[in-house]
Amino acid sequence: MDPKLLDILVCPLCKSPLIYRKAEQELICKADRLAFAIQDDIPVMLADEARKLTLDEIEKL
Fold this sequence. Notes:
With 61 residues, this protein is of the alpha+beta class. The protein has helices at residues 3-8, 55-60; strands at residues 19-21, 26-29, 34-39, 42-43, 51-52. It is built from two helices and five strands; from the N terminus they run αβββββα. Strands 1, 2, 3, 4 and 5 form a five-stranded antiparallel beta sheet that branches.
């Protein structure tokens, strides 16, 4: 994932900064409790495609 791209990406819903989880290939929005997948180095920033995070996952961040 390009570090320049990571610097400018924000959550498409609330505009908060995202947490990059390299091993999981996801971008995390703690505010909305969503995980956006990264496929072939391209973030899928669609709310309908995002995975909802559990409270346990949020607490571990």
